[in-house]
User: What shape does this take?
Amino acid sequence: MDAAALRRLLELRGQRVSLTDVQRALEQAGEPQFAGGSEALSALSAALGSLGTEKVRLAATRAEMLSERHLPALVEYQGRTWVLAEARGPRRLLDSGEGSTREVEAADLDQAFAIWFDRPAHAEERDRNGTRHSAARLLAGALAVRGRILVEVALATLLTSLLAVAISLFALQVYDRVIPSFSHATLHALAGVVGVLIVFDFVLRLVRARLLDRVSAEVDEEVSATVFRALIGVRLDARPGKVGTLAAQVAGLESARAFFASSVLFTIAEVPFALLFIAIIAFIAGPIAWFYGALALGALVAGLAAYAKLDSLSREQLEAGFRRNGLLVESIQGAETIKALGATWRFSERWREATKEIAAMSLRARTAMVGAATVAQSLASIAYVAVVVMGVYLVESGSLTVGALIACTMLGARVIGPIANGVALITQAQQAAQSLRAVDAVLDLPPEREHGVALLSPASLGHELVVEGARFCYGNVPVPQLDVPALRIAEGERVVLLGPPGSGKSTLLKILSGLYRPSQGRMLLGGVDVALLDPELVRRHVGYLPQDVQLFRGTLRENLDLEGTVSDDLLLQVVRELGLDALVRDHPRGLDREIFEGGSGLSGGQRQMAGIARLLLRRPSVLLLDEPTGALDHMFEARALRAIVNCLGPRDTFMLATHRTAALPLASRVIVVQQGRIVLDGEPGRVLKVLQAHGERAGQCAAPNAAVPA
Assistant: This one.
């Protein structure tokens, strides 16, 4: 698959992405090929998803089958990938994606393989320019795409319901015709036919369950991927501080998906047939049908009453569940601290109180749900007794036969089932709705890629960093944590950032990296506002290393090369430069040694070295490091700094926040930050003299600086 052609296709559909991003997306998807069949389409779909192209289904066919509405499309012609851009009568316009086009006869493409987007470009444009997707719309859209399967499910339900009518008619015939004459031949014939129908019903139910499972799995995969991309794409400065709560909100999608993909489908398919059965009962036994009609109406009222009662209760229960899940995540992450400080009892008590609160709410919700179900069951029993009593009088009057009465009671059982399921569905709908609202809260968080904004992705970008009138506030705190009226880091500068804890050093680095956006003002990279640049482009140019290095479950190799694009030669070179080769050599699996969640099993220094290696492997042109050697001894600190310097080119920009003196000789400029403001900025020698002149105050601002002259 040619990256240039795919980029051109997306451009024609109104989505601007860089060629490098497309190449990376195709590499990560396993380089899908035209001849790869459904696996290639799945891989290409994954690549498009990583590029921000959502809700697009791919389809493959021969180029001769395409019409105007399918264009633009990808087509394989003469051994390479082209964009089939236009149909000009008997001729077709092909675009290489590299600035050249050519016209060919339509007949030349008769046997060519083509891939097209099974979704109009203008519809996709509406999605980008309109409101963001809600969870309900995502689920509805995913189900609508699979409408054919759902129609097959409805057809299977229709046939199984008709088989229920056949069994009721079998009972009617046996009681009214076979028993009076003891006609064994008729009995055996009827039993044989019904036996075949029962086998058919068995097969249909299995097929229906299989189809629903397939729909459920596909919907889960599609919607979950969309929600996960939205979660990952949230701006870091807009993300809620409660990680456990955020995780629980996303997990709520599972229950909502199960509700819509199975419960709703079954009930929606069966309820109409319950009404059909009532009509058949009315045809057979007349007034008896009124009892089942009253049953349906009474059950509906009970379900709606429970739904209203569960409205506020479900919301409170969901929020309490989020809080408890946050406590669980927090306790697991901080288990060492909790045990070391003897605070186990405190967290156990908080867990007990949270569980008690949820249990009380669950009991109230369960009471409402059980109440509605009990009312429906009681009404069903009353309806059955009333039908039998009424039926006796009708049989006595000769207007109804015994067989017809039995058939009506059997059909009545098929009426009661969907109605009871409908009542349960109404009560469950409230919980599903609350789960969807929780997912909506995630989807509503501000994304890095604003909808309807064509982000810039220039082929070349300068390395200069400029901050203009920047102020930053965390969350809803009105007091700014950082206030920088103006700051310029020239291309090729080496800057060391000093300041006491909480002074704003880390916040400044996050803003310079583009991970955080200023609450006021702007940050420019290479003369362009970062808010207008494609985030992936910014990540390639700007490398940021946070204080706390996060390692992920997998191998050491996977953690060092998260993108999976680094050669083994470069990987080994960086590992040796940093001294990580001992970590590799001391383990029998080398670079494939297993890393547990959060880097458990590695020391703080080893995790920090892994973070530095991860950054150097990316070879960014701007390096921003936040206390990169805080957990290292002097020998490894010197080694790490030497490796960082060796990685820098003459035009590369470098900024390091530290409280240690080892990095000061690398600096061409020192900036001192205090209380969110830049208080000193200049050549290292001059800044250090000013700090020393302030005596004790200098010790508070940059404690290690007193040792610099030695």
